[in-house]
Amino acid sequence: MEERELQQYRSVLEAKQAELVEALRRRDGITIEKAADALDEVRLAADRELMIHTLDRESLRLREIRAALARIEEGTYGICLGCEEPIPKKRLDAVPWAAYCVRCQEAVDAQRAAETAGPIIESLLEEPV
Asked: Which CATH code of 1.20.120.910, 2.60.40.1600, 3.30.300.20, 3.20.190.10 fits the domain covering 3-126?
């Protein structure tokens, strides 16, 4: 990959990193609030859960971006961590923090889904009906 392209990706990644760092500083939505009405408490709890989920997702994205910036420094940016083939430019343009080509990413996602689904299914089977 040419130095000019790497600089472009670095700039995009650094801008996204700054945006996420700022977003993660705002945690007002996860404070526990009490409401006089039970229905309001349920709504506040749902809003808090949504905010926690959003913070989780943004934290993961920030780690992916930092890892991509580290790969740029190491000289391995744009190489799939799974098959070690070049990640297509089209994919990097769409997802500059991508660590895997589409085929390997699908395999990673399927493996994560299977690992997550296993304990959930087991807990459902253990519960009495």
From this structure: 1.20.120.910
